[in-house]
Amino acid sequence: MLLNWIGDWRTNKPFVRHAVKTTFAACLSYAIAAYFDLPQSFWAAVVAIFVTQANVGASLGQAFYWFLGSLLGVVVGGAVAIVVGSEPAMRLLGLAPTVLVLGYFAARRPPLRIACVNAAIVILGTPMFAAPIYSAGIRMIEVVIGTVVALLTVLFIFPSRAGPALASHIVRTLPVYFQMLSEVLTSALTGRCDDDVLSASNANIRAVVTMNQALKEETLREVEGFLAGQVDPEPLLNALRRFWHTELMLARACSSPLPAPAMVTLRPTLQELRDAVDEAVVTLNDAGDRTIMCPPSLAAVEEALEELSRLISEMRQKGELRSMSMDDVVRLLALDFALEQLRLNIGDLADRLQDLTCIAGTAAWQTRKPLPLPPARSQRKPAPSESKT
Q1: How do residues 249-268 score in pLDDT, each as one tens digit?
Q2: pTM score, whole prediction
Q3: Domain spans in the chain, listed from the N-terminal domain onward
Q4: Rg (Cα) of the chain, in Å, rounded?
Q5: Which of 193, 304, 326, 367 has its CA 20 to 30 A from that of 270?
């Protein structure tokens, strides 16, 4: 029972820390606003809750859009409130075009939707002072209090940076890419393509790519704010996207059964390739965040891909493709092209995985050594030229 609780605590620790930071920022913002006797001090706490995010980069983005949206809302709302006065009918008449215009900008830039909220509050709310302009000014002061307190909180209380979060997310989701590759190779070996399984894997990778992009933007935002060292995660993310696109290319090539004569030659090596990919999945799952310091070796996968390329090249040189139908030749050449692109992208990905420690902000990034895969379940037989040594 205790071990289970400890395991759950380790898993949930980031969420608990985020809850603590949010609570602290909200309470401190409200206390400061109440100390200065600001009307509706709760607005400072609301802003702090929204601005406090999981890492510094995300909080910087929220702070920028909340401040910009609030400023836009109070300026436009204050101007409209001055023009329309306090009559309910006139307020409604001023509210409609204001929300229409600001709603259009919010539709194009969703983070700016707070502008509509602030403008509506200023136009429809009971003026806190003699003129609406004072109400707008107080609103901005409350927004500034909540934003500043939230940023200081994420910087000094359980600080979390976007770079390590991005590196950890890449490591946790790497097995998803290789699992899809294993499913595609299974389709090639069995001659049956399970569209539901491949669609589910493709959807998972699409969600991973979207999250990687969001974390990348937060990482670059920290760099631009001089809160993190220079880091460029784009090459690694590009390598992952190319790997994914090549898997889709290979899946299309394997959507129909491959030519039977070719499969007689290619099946053993395709089986070895799938075994190597499965070993990579196991290694990545077992290594976890240690992959950041010791990226796995993908040599077994690359060797199997090179062997497949050699076998198909030999078939072409021996004229074995002449006995196949045109459709079979086209499918085989499409498979050859997809496997060659996969080999190139696997090699590029293996090199780019060395950037993980840089992205994570680890100082010892130049001393990494690849993490070897476990011995493959099936060993490739040496080629005739190799056995004559």
Answers
A1: 999 988 888 888 899 999 99
A2: 0.75
A3: 2-156, 162-382
A4: 29
A5: 326
